[in-house]
Amino acid sequence: MGRVLQIRVIAQTVSTSEVGWSWQKLCMLAFDKQPGDADKHMGIFELIDALTDKFLFGGLDECLKAKLRPGLDKVIAIRKQIDEALADWNPSRANALSNELEDALDALEDLAPNAKLKQ
Question: pTM score, two decimals?
Answer without folding.
Answer: 0.89
